[in-house]
Specification:
elongated, about 190 residues, 10 helices
């Protein structure tokens, strides 16, 4: 589900507006527990986003260093390794996004409870809700493949590594038998 659509369906009822409707003590307790679960889930989802940025930073750093090393060492095969690294980071990010998306059905259910002010759902059921979203895991993986927020920068770097490799193979640079010394450079 698109992020913007989720944001449009945010909770309209706040804890203070719950008192507008007379809730029995058990229903009020369940509403408080659902609110605590909701806040925990939101924090977990935000932590996934933070770690996703870390994955992207590692990917960009290591693959850029690989491209630079390939050219400074005149070693085109390093470009293939760099492209492979970009693909591995992309797969890691897909797995991360699929795991994050598994939390959204439960979040949406809790939002619906607050929107409708019907607190008939049992609180603290995160693990009970996880298998259902993972049942459609193949579809989620395919969908995640095409999300720009998932494939960037990994796919771009992998493609760049492949293109640079084939360009280097078709126009090989002269190989140095040994690195130049400082005296030779002057």
């Amino acid at each position: 589900m698109d992020w913007l659509k989720r944001q449009r369906r945010r909770i309209t009822a706040t804890p203070s507006s719950l008192s507008a409707r007379n809730l029995d003590p058990a229903e009020k307790a369940r509403a408080d527990q659902l609110q605590a679960e909701y806040l925990h889930l939101q924090k977990t989802i935000e932590e996934f986003d933070a770690k996703s940025l870390t994955i992207k930073a590692w990917s960009a750093t290591l693959t850029t260093a690989g491209i630079a090393a390939a050219y400074t060492q005149n070693a085109p095969p390093v470009l293939l390794i760099t492209a492979g690294g970009g693909l591995v980071f992309w797969l890691i990010e897909i797995a991360w996004k699929v795991s994050q998306d598994a939390y959204y059905p439960r979040v949406e259910m809790i939002e619906r409870c607050f929107r409708d002010q019907r607190f008939d759902q049992a609180p603290f059921q995160i693990s009970a809700w996880w298998p259902a979203p993972f049942g459609a895991q193949a579809a989620r993986v395919v969908r995640a493949l095409y999300l720009p927020r998932v494939f960037l920068p990994h796919l771009v770097v992998a493609l760049a590594g492949l293109c640079l490799y084939f360009a280097a193979e078709s126009h090989p640079a002269p190989m140095l038998s040994r690195p130049a010394t400082f005296d030779e450079v002057r």
